[in-house]
Design a protein that fits this description.
heterotrimer; A mainly alpha; B mainly alpha; C alpha/beta; A: mainly alpha; two-stranded antiparallel ribbon; C: alpha/beta; 2 domains; 6-stranded mixed sheet; about 25% strand
């Protein structure tokens, strides 16, 4: 296999990993701190993509669209928290799952009503749409690098926010001891709303970043949410660090598996057999890995400290 | 002792019998008057109710919240479709057949195997992990089926021929209905017996306090695994019927929205009760029919209804869970 | 008397804190052996390791001469040891009789019986009620555990440990949270078991310990600092300083 293809696939894997992290970090944040299972997280990701698409046509610029779409997604997250999540905090996880499942149906159908059944392509500005030579002879699309850079900055920003700010201190304290945080005189309700909105922004951002490549489409949220589940299961539910490593790992494995598994299979089986079995296996690869990791470490790779 | 008002108890029993009889008779009557549409609806209802009964065994009686049970519907349907496909178009001589016993046997075996293998992993964990992992495994199967172009990939496959049995023809809507509804009754009765058996009591104990069951000396993992496999097999059987009913198989059958709908039926109808899954399936079918006749966007009111139920049923749906147990004699 | 349970060099630490520190203890057949010690001394951790809920870092546990150090929790009751919990642990949604029947069945081989109605197994139902009678719960056999008073739940807890033909009972603070009358009944119950069962009793109520126990061990910071008959322990200077002196 040639180097260019390998580099491109590595970048694709990295890109998928980073997007997965943006989605998974919100899930794990909300679960770790609020002990809430949010199935509708993927719907927010989709919403981000659609809002960004519409705003791109309004403002004429993808970058401005992202800028204006982020607060809108935060509001969507806030509304979700206020009207569905908040009344369910004290309930069983089963109620969370069913309530947010209902929310998915509502959000998906609303998106269908507003944006129609077909996907919406988002045009990129010229300076993002080209190709760039990163090494001699190795040319990669500029936008892929942009996604990786934007995603990594968001991850770094999140790291800074959680570890070096007062809000982050409260978030970390809230995860380990809720009563203590409320005893500090912090309005725990507002804190929870903020965390939820933050998660929504991260997921929405991921949706906006991917939309120019894949289009904004109705099923996109439901596809990524389950992969994000795999990420946080592998990483350890509630662990930010786990989500980060697991997201990159899953992103790379999935991408490289789909790209190269048939070549690898051809080394020891007929090419017809390889072409039949490789897609089947590569589509299951991350789930099989999840099963293997869980059977060895039921709490995931980086279980959070006991709460 | 739970003191029950004897007249209330009798009323309840009568109500149950009335519902069962109605499920059997009403569609037959309507179809004799020419409303064959309702016969098909009742067939679909019966098949979904079978799947819900299967899910209820682990979700209701065993407290294992699986969000991936539509996988077994898919497995069952593909176990009918794949042999039929090869019988028609060649290839895979090993399974190519339209023999109903072989197809249903395959559906049961494949469901049992999938439940066993995934159960080994997901039953090691609890709570949210369990919900997510069952979901992930169903999705794995979804992507697997999408990746196999021979069986239509994303688009699915029309099955041109139904399972063949001696004396029975599933091509006849009436017979298809009778097979489905009688299977439903038998399976409801069977699961009721299991729930009241020694095994069922252990399952109930595990749901109530697993740590205690372990310290009493129960290898709870094995009991859960067996329940999980039985549940998968029941849903796989329902899938085989569904494949025959729709004569169409596609990965969409495994979509997690289908799993969610199954959960909805079980929980809304009343978990850990004999009638619950059937009542839930009736509710679901009625709601779906009524809403989808009003608008193609029926998921919107359906979603709102679901949210409303979760939010406003006092103490949450899990309280229905408790109540169900007490009132089911 | 022969040794029933033998614990040698047991260690368990959690993130640098030693919950069990080179613990040696031997329980003789037929005795009621009490373990006392200050809170956080590692008593519940010890019970957890004996019943297999927690695996020790090092050391060994032998039961009737058999090494059970790393045996799974669910296998141990079948050898003849059962436990009660400090915080009541029952199947709250089921009836008293069901709880007892489950405890009985646990010992009777497997429960993969799928067909006959278990609540109509007259022989087992009768056996279950006899245990309910033994702890004075005969009037409550059909009640859901949820609806029992705290003292009744504590007694059911003990009754469930009795149903197994266990020779060893691990009792984790059976008097916890019991009022005067209820505590007296529990003490009477434990006293009636003396001689029939070997018991390892963890308890804070000193009067109960000194009236019931054949021997007492003192557990401080995960280590047994003294073992002996109740009178000796009462007079042991080290013990008084470490524990009784505080009280």
């Amino acid at each position: 296999m040639d180097t260019t293809l390998l580099v491109i696939q590595l970048l694709n894997g990295l890109q998928l990993g980073i997007l997965l992290f943006l989605v998974a970090s919100g899930l794990t944040l909300v679960f770790g701190i609020l002990d809430f299972v949010n199935l509708a997280h993927g719907a927010v990701y989709m919403l981000g993509a659609f809002i960004c698409a519409s705003l791109t046509f309004v403002t004429g610029s993808f970058v401005w669209a992202v800028f204006f779409a982020l607060p809108l997604v935060a509001i969507a997250g806030y509304l979700l928290e206020r009207f569905i999540a908040q009344p369910l905090y004290e309930r069983d996880h089963l109620d969370h799952v069913l309530g947010t499942f209902g929310a998915i149906l509502v959000i998906d159908t609303l998106a269908h009503l507003v944006w129609g059944p077909a996907g919406i392509a988002i045009p990129l500005p010229a300076y993002l749409d080209g190709q760039i030579e990163i090494l001699t002879e190795i040319v990669v699309p500029t936008y892929r690098l942009t996604i990786i850079a934007a995603g990594l900055s968001a991850a770094a920003g999140l790291y800074w926010l959680v570890n070096f700010t007062r809000l982050g201190m409260l978030i970390r304290a809230g995860a380990s001891n809720r009563t203590m945080v409320s005893a500090l005189g912090v309005d725990i309700k507002t804190l929870f709303s903020l965390v939820f909105a933050l998660g929504a922004v991260l997921a929405g951002l991921a949706g906006m970043l991917i939309a120019p490549i894949t289009e904004a489409s109705l099923g996109m949220g439901n596809n990524i949410i389950i992969t994000a589940f795999v990420v946080i299961i592998v990483g350890g539910i509630g662990s930010m660090k786990g989500a980060f490593y697991a997201a990159l790992f899953i992103g790379l494995i999935d991408t490289l598996g789909r790209a190269f598994l048939d070549d690898i299979f051809k080394l020891f089986m007929s090419s017809a057999a390889a072409e039949n079995s490789a897609p089947a296996l590569s589509s299951m690869l991350i789930y099989i890995l999840m099963a293997l990791i869980l059977s060895m470490r039921p709490q995931g790779l980086f279980p959070p400290k006991l709460r | 002792m739970i003191v029950m008002n004897p007249t209330k108890n009798t009323t309840k029993r009568v109500a149950k019998v009335v519902i069962l009889v109605a499920v059997l008779i009403v569609p037959l009557m309507l179809s004799t008057f020419g409303f064959t549409f309702y016969l098909d609806l009742a067939t679909r209802l019966s098949i979904l109710a079978i799947a819900a009964v299967g899910l209820n065994l682990i979700l209701g009686y065993g407290g294992m919240v699986s969000f991936g049970h539509a996988a077994y519907l898919g497995i069952g349907a593909y176990a009918v479709g794949i042999p039929a496909h090869h019988w028609l178009y060649g290839g895979l001589n090993m399974v190519a057949s339209t023999n109903g016993f072989l197809q249903i046997g395959l559906a049961i075996l494949a469901s049992a195997l999938f439940a066993f293998l995934t159960g080994l992993v997901c039953l090691k964990v609890k709570g949210v992990y369990f919900i997510m992992i069952t979901m992930a495994f169903a999705q794995m199967l979804y992507y697997l089926l999408v990746s196999i172009s021979e069986y239509g990939g994303d688009d699915g496959l029309v099955i041109d021929t139904r399972s063949e049995f001696p004396l029975i023809s599933l091509d006849d809507p009436l017979q298809m209905f009778l097979v489905s509804v009688l299977s439903l009754f038998i399976i409801m009765w069977g699961v009721r017996r299991i729930a009241k058996s020694q095994f069922g009591m252990v399952l109930e104990g595990i749901k109530g306090n697993e740590a205690r069951m372990i310290s009493l000396g129960y290898n709870t993992f094995r009991y859960k695994l067996v329940a999980y496999v039985i549940s998968g097999v029941i849903c796989g059987f329902a899938g085989a019927l569904l494949g025959n009913f729709t004569t169409f198989i596609s990965p969409e059958m495994i979509d997690w929205a289908r799993s969610g709908e199954l959960m909805f039926m079980v929980i809304l109808g009343g978990v850990a009760t004999t009638m619950g899954p059937l009542l839930g399936a009736i509710t679901f079918i009625v709601v779906e029919e009524v809403l989808s006749s009003l608008t193609i966007y029926w998921h919107l009111p359906f979603g709102l209804m679901l949210i409303g139920i979760v939010l406003f049923v006092r103490g949450g749906l899990s309280s229905l869970l408790e109540r169900g147990q007490k009132t089911d004699d | 008397m022969t040794e029933l349970l033998s614990i040698k060099g047991l260690n368990k630490s959690y993130g640098g804190v030693k919950a069990t520190d080179d613990l040696n203890l031997s329980i003789l057949k037929g005795e009621l052996h009490a373990i006392i010690g200050p809170n956080g001394g590692g008593k519940t951790t010890l019970i957890s390791q004996l019943c297999g809920n927690v695996m020790p870092d090092s050391g060994s546990v032998h039961f009737s001469g058999r090494d059970i150090t790393t045996m799974s929790e669910h296998k141990r009751p079948h050898l003849g040891m059962s436990r009660t919990y400090q915080i009541t642990s029952l199947i709250r949604t089921m009836s008293v009789l069901d709880n007892l029947q489950l405890a009985i069945q646990a010992q009777a081989g497997h429960s993969f019986r799928f067909w006959s109605d278990v609540r109509r197994h007259q022989i087992e139902r009768e056996r279950a009620s006899s245990y309910a009678r033994q702890v004075g719960l005969e009037g409550q056999i059909q009640s859901r555990v949820d609806n029992l008073a705290h003292g009744e739940q504590r007694r059911l807890e003990v009754a469930m440990a009795l149903t197994s033909n266990s020779c060893l009972l691990l009792l984790d603070e059976p008097l916890a949270g019991l009022g005067g009358q209820e505590a007296a009944e529990m003490i009477k119950l434990l006293d009636s078991l003396k001689g029939h069962k070997t018991m390892l009793l963890i308890e804070h109520d000193m009067d109960a310990v000194f009236s019931l126990a054949d021997r007492v061990s003192v557990l401080v910071y995960g280590h047994i600092i003294a073992t002996g008959p109740p009178e000796d322990i009462r007079q042991n200077a080290e013990v008084q300083q470490a524990y009784l002196g505080e009280a």
